[in-house]
Write a structure and sequence with these properties.
By secondary structure, this protein is of the alpha/beta class. About 40% of the residues lie in helices and about 10% in strands. It has helices spanning about 50-75, 85-95, 105-115, 135-150, 160-175, 190-205, 210, 230-240, 260-270, 295-305, 340-345, 360-365, 395-430, 460-470, 500-520, and strands at about 180-185, 220-225, 245-250, 275-285, 310-315, 335-340, 350-355, 435-440, 445-450, 480, 485-490. It has a seven-stranded mixed β-sheet, with helices on both faces.
Length: about 525
């Protein structure tokens, strides 16, 4: 899940009488689980296969289940999240490993009864937490087809690799990245950022890192990001061996973008101290507020200082379609991470790493000896990243790009941004709420309004409001921290959301805030001594 810096209510202790505790039938390992035609109750190992007729019947049943599920989301029925009752959860997690196989139809029914009702919630029109989008129906079908195709997309001359090459070309055009660049699909933004920074590490050490690592360097490499940068940048610094002490977190300006002046001063100080400023990891849409860093100014600084410009666009990279004026200079980045499973509505998992210089990316990750390379054919994707065996992530995205097109995605992104702006106006107009931030994309941060001197209006109240709203099933949102205070945070990356869903969120927050604030204990008043 992208957006690890943002927290949500801890609802692991949901009461055992939570909704949808469907009855469980006979014990799972009862002898009746074995197929009736199995000799001595033990099925033949070949029973894993199915005839076309059996598969078709099971598949139709599964598609019916999915269709009903999607219809419930479209209708906006029920709460965004239903928490699994503790008894069901405990039984599921303590279940013994099955010793005897079970009929597939019964397994599918069990999925319908014990798994699907307890969704994360992000397919609901009232889910506004983190940056987790709804899944496009055609992408769901693409996932099924990719699983049936079942290739390992490490490379080679087969359909899946050529589809991925096509998708990478389309993505570069979509976000305005260099057409000469190279890339590959990843599990998500965290790995995409790791790969981009891994290519940077190779380039900034002249390739020496492959032999000696980062140990014993006379001038250690220094990375820079803003205090609003995503936590995966710091995690990548740890994984790649830079260490947290070599990552500088630069303050932001009034628009919560990285402060370029403060960055320049930090770079000068590190160079004066004998260190090697190596990379700026900028944000094309921070998770906290949706702020977009000034890429042209950052690219100028990096060019002067010999630094690599990496951009984390996992959430906001597609914002370029709706707000191109915010993204001037993005095309100058050396590497870029984007997440099609966010604003492109591809089912999870689907991230993408792009690097301007294909030779650097390949040299950073390839372990194929040069004498075995055949450059008459495309290099293998396994040479560009950390995975050898890779799933067919490209199919669902290839299908969606054809269905939606550039203009369709532009309209979807604009719509989400417009809904966030509408939410900001609703908050401004509500006497019980105050807006804390509304970044240029689709994130709005706000608080339940109380007098500053009121001890009942602190951070705990905001957390309690978020938990109460989520428990009641009215909406799902989370909290985060801005300016050293807890705020409520809503992010719209949801093609099912409507203005009525936002209005319901606003009223649910206001109602919960009023109730919880009234229940909060007041500080005891000090009695005046007589005389």
């Amino acid at each position: 899940m992208y957006g690890a810096a943002v927290t949500g209510p801890d609802l692991r202790d949901a009461p055992s009488d939570a909704p949808i505790d469907a009855p469980i039938d006979a014990p799972i390992d009862a002898p009746s689980d074995a197929p009736s035609d199995a000799p001595n109750g033990v099925p033949d190992a070949r029973a894993i296969t199915m005839s076309p007729e059996e598969f078709r019947a099971l598949g139709h049943h599964a598609v019916d289940m999915v269709a009903e599920l999607l219809a419930s989301f479209d209708a906006g029925e029920g709460p965004p999240r239903r928490w699994m009752p503790r008894a069901t959860r405990d039984r599921l997690r303590a279940e013994p490993l099955p010793q005897i196989g079970r009929p597939p139809a019964r397994i599918l029914d069990r999925v319908a009864r014990e798994v699907l009702p307890y969704a994360m919630g992000n397919n609901s029109p009232r889910f506004f937490a983190w940056v987790n989008s709804t899944a496009a129906p055609l992408g769901v079908i693409g996932e099924l087809l990719a699983a049936a195709h079942n290739p390992s997309v490490a490379g080679g001359d087969h359909g899946a690799t050529h589809v991925e090459h096509a998708v990478i070309s389309w993505l570069k055009e979509l976000v305005g990245f260099s057409s000469e660049g190279a890339g590959l699909l990843t599990s998500g933004g965290s790995v995409a950022n790791l790969i981009g920074l891994g290519a940077m590490r190779h380039a900034q050490t002249g390739g020496a890192v492959r032999g000696r690592g980062l140990q014993g360097d006379d001038a250690p490499l220094i990375l820079y990001t803003s205090v609003e940068g995503h936590s995966c940048i710091e995690k990548a610094a740890l994984i790649l061996g830079f260490g947290g002490d070599r990552l500088r977190k630069i303050p932001t300006d009034g628009a919560r973008r990285i402060d370029v002046g403060a960055l320049a001063r930090a770079v000068a100080a590190d160079r004066h101290a004998g260190l090697q400023p190596a990379c700026v990891a900028a944000s094309a849409g921070t998770v906290n507020t949706g702020a977009v860093d000034p890429f042209d100014a950052l690219a100028d600084l990096c060019a002067r200082e010999g630094m690599w410009l990496h951009v984390d666009g996992a959430y906001g990279g597609l914002g370029r379609l709706a707000r191109p004026e915010l993204y001037r200079g993005l095309e100058r980045a050396d590497s870029l991470a984007i997440d099609p499973h966010k604003w492109m509505y591809a089912p999870v998992e689907c991230g993408c790493a792009l690097v301007r210089d294909p030779a650097v990316l390949r040299a950073a990750f390839s372990l194929v000896p040069p004498y075995l390379r055949d450059d008459a054919e495309d290099p293998w994707f396994a040479e560009f990243g950390i995975q050898q065996t890779r799933g067919f992530r490209a199919l669902k995205l290839w299908m969606l790009l054809q269905q939606v097109g550039v203009e369709g995605y532009r309209a979807l992104v604009r719509r989400d941004i417009a809904l966030a702006a509408a939410l900001a106006r609703m908050i401004d107009e509500h006497p019980a709420l105050e807006r804390c931030s509304d970044g240029p994309l689709s994130v709005v941060c706000f608080r339940y309004r109380v007098a500053h001197a009121d001890p009942r209006g602190g951070d705990d109240l905001q957390r309690q409001i978020a938990e109460a709203v989520c428990r009641a099933g009215e909406a799902f949102l989370t909290t985060t921290c801005l300016d050293e205070q807890v705020v409520l945070r809503a992010c719209v990356v949801n093609f099912r959301a409507e203005r009525r869903d936002l209005a319901r969120l606003v009223e649910a927050v206001a109602d919960a805030g009023a109730r919880l604030h009234a229940q909060a204990p007041r500080s005891p008043t000090r009695q005046r001594r007589p005389g």
